[in-house]
Each structure stands twice: as C-alpha cells, then as structure tokens.
Design a protein that fits this description.
Elements lengths: L7 E10 L2 E11 L4 E5 L6 H8 L7 E6 L2 E2 L5 H7 L1 E4 L11 H8 L6 H14 L1 H5 L10 H13 L5 E5 L7 H16 L3 E5 L3 H7 L2 E6 L2 E7 H6 L1 H8 L11
Parallel strand pairs: 3-8, 3-9, 6-7, 7-8
Antiparallel strand pairs: 1-2, 1-4, 4-5, 9-10
Helix pairs in contact: 3-6, 7-8
Amino acid sequence: MSERTPVLELIGVDVHYSGVQALHGLTLSVMPGEVVTLLGGNGAGKTSTLSAISGLETPSAGRIIFEGQDITRARPHDIVGRGLVHVPEGRRVFSRLTVHENLQLGGYLVRSAQELATRLDRVCATLPRLAELRGRAAGSLSGGEQQMVAIGRALMAEPRLLMLDEPSMGLAPGMVATVMGLIRDISEQGTAVLLVEQNTRAAMRVADRGYVLDTGTCVVEGPVAELADDPRIAEAYLGFAPTAAEGTK
C-alpha cells in the first residue's frame, strides 16, 4: 500500500440506534503512520464512529474501507484479524488476570508459541513498565498502568491501525503526558492511530489532523494547528480560546 493511500476511509457513513441517527454521512480518512483525532462534545458521534469501524455497530448507509478492502459488514473478530484494533473507553482489563495473561489474550489469534513470545518481547520493549509488572494482577494497578496494559494488549495483535477511545480518562496529568507520548511513539513506528479524546489540548498536541464532530456530522477537518488557530472552531467546538502555543507538538 502506498504511503499516500489511506489505511482507513469512511465514505458517507450513517449509523442509527433504535431509530435515532448517531452519524450523518460521515467521511474521513487516516493515512499510514498518521495520528488523527476525533473532537467534539458528548454526543457528537465519536464513540459511534469507532464502534462502526470495529464492527460493533453496522452502518445503515455508506462504506468503510480498510487497506483497500470493504469491511462495512465484517465481523469484529475478522476486523481484528485484518490488523485494525479498538481499545475501548474504560480500559476493560481482566482484573483478576496478571499483566502477562492480559497481554497474552491480545495475541489470541497467534497460533505459534514462538511468535507469541516474540510479540510479548516487542510490546515490553515499547512499554518497559509492563515487563516490571508482568506478574501483578491487572486489577491491582493504577489507572495509568491499566491503560498501558490495555494498549499493550492491543499491540499484541500488531495492528496497522489502532483506535483509542478516551485513553486519558481518569488519569493524573503526568500520566496523561506519558500515554500521549506513547501514542506518538506508536505512530512513529508506523502504526496509524485514530484517537478519541475529551482532553482536547492533549489530543491536539500529538495528532497530525483532526475532525470536529457535532451531533454526528463533521463540521470541519484539517491539520490540528489550523483548527486550533481558528477562534470560531476553538471556542465553539474545542472548548478553549486559541493561543500562540496551541496546535504545536
């Protein structure tokens, strides 16, 4: 796949829940190695977008293309097998299992024990803290450590696109910076990232481009520096007045 060919495309996607339309003709793209963030308030359609992409919700209209293949109606486990992995809001680690066991579950599609061990080593190289915590029960960890477990578990599938829903929720400011730095590192290693994040400033510091959603519709898109510099967008949708420092990474 060419570096200029999107790894993910949504084309005119609608999603309905019990007769209520959550997405209205949403069109977006993510390029290889790019961090794209979805911005907007509660109810804007951000989580619905990730659910549609990962197969948890079936669009009522439109198409979802991943690496040139139509996955609009693919099953969630097939989508994971293709290399598209979703880390949902709330981390959802298996609290009674160890960190090591949680990570192993992320590689459930791997049939070779040697390959599974190799992937564990790679994940622990990316997240060295997890190597230190391997024998600990995931439920005994801090919120930030659990978020690292959730991301590490997703990386076990060696995704080409990683989707993250509110990874900074409930974390201390220092840990937010750590998680956002990890997201940037993952993208620089070649994995595309689609990020939903209520902490707008944190998201815009690591993202390349953004889509601003309002009640299921994209109202504006572009490089994050341009979005942050537009006072109408920043104040109406992003929750802050722009400053000279906003939009820089």
